[in-house]
């Protein structure tokens, strides 16, 4: 058989088996056939049926308006400081009654679900100790047996032995002490737990605060195979960054079920802010700062302040992050849309189209590159912003891009959905894009390395919170879910679609983040000495994502109805089994704050050499000793005749022009053979590479 026909027959054999190349030998399980059906979020059948938004004056409002929403908000007590009292999702039953009562023909309202798995209990720090006492040593020694270990650069069939939260051995025929707990991983992939680079648990924002807090949010993260989140401490304008950091620590430490790190926001600028950035980097384990180019009048920085903050990031070896959207344009567009009576969620998307994101992305890249500062663009939401990042990388900029589960898994057609609440549930900034090719495009850029990490921007608001903007899209709290489903969505859209292999999946869900934020190989790798944060992944199993069954506190899921392959059957965090065959046993306060050291070699490794190589060089030349114009005492330039008219009057018959220049009607040579510039210093000849009229090879002109 020729090699060509051998290849063809191998291909046919593979087609017949319908088994991806990385699966053979992985176990006996066959992937369960996927039920065919319309993926609710791949395409919204009626999304564009009626594009013209109906105005409140023309039709009865379809907005689900809970009568008691104001009361419920008041129950939050704290203004910008969450106190652990959260919206009771059971309120959504009343909410549903109201909606039913108000519904009539032609009014589209979706059911508001009550998440089934939200435990209404306060996070208690002492829970962390009870884990140790109940499970004892069995929790400290664990063997994951028979799986296929996947790192970003290789796969191997190997067992993993863990002691006291650290991976101690990886290989076959391991010697392990008696009493070691065994997790059977045959047919499973054993991968580093996910790192979600971008969350906002219990963020105080737009008059309320995100409903998923550090407890429900990190518990949901674990359920989906994510073992570390990176959240943002965001000071208000004029507020101390260090104080904001401590406040976030005090919210997170008692509640987190998995490890977490913090980025810190820079929402205003003065020298003190710069000093605090340094203090945070040196003393508090912060190596990344996010600057906002949107949210005019609150968090937005202008170009000057962006430059200052970028310079400071470089000075202290931190990574500058940007929320890249042009806030001035958004403000302008928003006013126009509201004037036109466009008050619904589609106005959010219309006010900030792709180019508004791309312009800011480009500007941030240019500003950062001009001061030699590495840049990380958070939540890349559009093709054009992604193109900016990838083109800048091709031009040699040190820039990283982070798409999120939402931009990879769904699209902005939902802003045109007839149910107000459904459309509002997708409001986030930058918005999802109505171009439904965008998710595939972004996945392709992750596949080829142009984009590097994946976050979620998980910042959830329930229906009654979103309803703050029922009459004005600018008041809809921005944010969507994702922390629980990111791994499954990326597996489905990336690996099942054939765009990325399991190694790349690991790279974009954990390893690249660990490298960029300088916590590798403690995180993001299955290797001896690494933290035992592991997901035992069943690539064959399927599930259907739903707010009814998710662990998050929010009452909506932007991936509702999406059927995904890939389930975290076991999740091990700090060497403890926290998810077991789908059951989550997370404990508040069990996670730890992970300091991120400055000067990450993956970010700053080439900066110093680059600065030296690209340093501007002075040109040695003879000083200019010709005439110099003089300035008058108003500081305006004024040509002083004597200084620009040569003394060789023989060439001049006419006076200078009105502006003091040479009158071109005069000849520059004299019948005596003298030239006008005979007395000027000799100029070196100039080689012009592209003379007018085309090149004459090798000659000067
Ligand atoms: N992204 C978003 O819509 N909400 C969270 C705040 C932010 O990151 O801009
Ligand atoms: Zn964000």
From TrEMBL:
Keywords, sorted A to Z: Hydrolase, Metal-binding
Post-translational modifications: Carbamylation allows a single lysine to coordinate two divalent metal cations.
Domain Amidohydrolase-related per the UniProt entry, residue ranges: 189-578
Single annotated GO MF: dihydropyrimidinase activity
InterPro entries: Amidohydro-rel (IPR006680), Hydantoinase/dihydroPyrase (IPR011778), Metal-dep_hydrolase_composite (IPR011059), Metal_Hydrolase (IPR032466), Metallo-dep_Hydrolases_sf (IPR050378)
UniProt biased composition (Basic and acidic residues): 57-79
Reaction(s) this enzyme catalyzes, per UniProt: 5,6-dihydrouracil + H2O = 3-(carbamoylamino)propanoate + H(+)
Species per Swiss-Prot/TrEMBL record: Scylla paramamosain (Mud crab)
Gene Ontology biological process terms in this record: pyrimidine nucleobase catabolic process
Family, per entry: Belongs to the metallo-dependent hydrolases superfamily. Hydantoinase/dihydropyrimidinase family.
Region called Disordered, residue ranges: 1-40, 52-110, 671-701
Keyword Metal-binding: yes
Cofactor(s) it depends on: Zn(2+)
Protein name: dihydropyrimidinase
